[in-house]
Amino acid sequence: MNEAARKTVLSGVRPTGPAHLGNYVGAFRNWLRLQDEYRCFYSIVTWHALTSEYANSKVIKEYTFEVATDLLSLGLDPAKCVLFNQSEVKEHAELHLLLSMIVPLPWLERVPTFKEQQAEMAEKELNTYGFLGYPLLQTADIIIYKADVVPVGEDQVFHLELAREIVRRFNRLYAPVFPEPQTLLTEIPKLAGVDGRKMSKSYGNAIYLKDTAEEIRRKIEPMVTDTRRKRRSDQGEPDDCPVFTLHRAFVEPARRDGIAAECRKAGIGCLECKNVVIQAIIGLLTPYWEKRAAFEKNPRTVWDILEDGNARAREAARKTMVEVRDAIGV
Prior knowledge:
The protein is mostly helical. It has helices spanning 21-34, 46-53, 60-74, 91-100, 105-109, 112-120, 129-132, 134-143, 157-173, 213-220, 242-250, 253-264, 270-297, 299-328; strands at 8-13, 39-44, 81-85, 149-152, 182-185.
């Protein structure tokens, strides 16, 4: 397809540590597919990380390297997409500032995740302007590249509607500079962590992409399964088993369905079931581990790829900001 005819995608990831399987299933696997179909801008959103990690900001550079290395090792191709560091494209901050002049405060206060994340991370002081305003910065991230579509899960749909509302207000006040970004709904399975809760760095229950095969086995083997199965002869229900969320994400459908049927009639034990998904995850990650080892030996390669992506993103963002300034008259 002609490059000019391809629709533009923008998506971002917060650099809050090395990536885990939940990140892969929820976003990165989709990014790999989209880079072959769209004109993709993938941002490591360092300023967004500051909204919650401002007191621990020294680690963000290290985490930026970790996330970039994970993405490149998984197969993200800088020849097919633009991988860049948000804070190296200062135009994001300028557009965020200009948008903040026209967005009513109640629009931000009604964002559901504002209160939800404050409660979830109660140990941190998040009653800051930056945390309240992060959906506005997110809008700037999206529209500065005139993104046509944004891949999100259902929990982020409200943010996209807010972005469209902001675009409509800007275009009405000044000039039709921005297209309204559309939602590209993606299925984000709720992947269980090693304690049965949703996999999350903050819960300390994650299986990281860079974990070794031995670490993955050590984490999965003790996981609690369906509590009905106290003995090998007890029948189970995969839909109530945290481990089976891993099967849904990583085991091919025919084999997964067969294991589910065997579980329901006690034809397979929990350890056998776990071994299947352990081997599937190890098989998936083996090429990644090999690529990651090469990048770790030559970290300059990762930073060079980011620097090139920063320049390409900056070029696109600057073009948009010329239009924005002209429309506003500043």
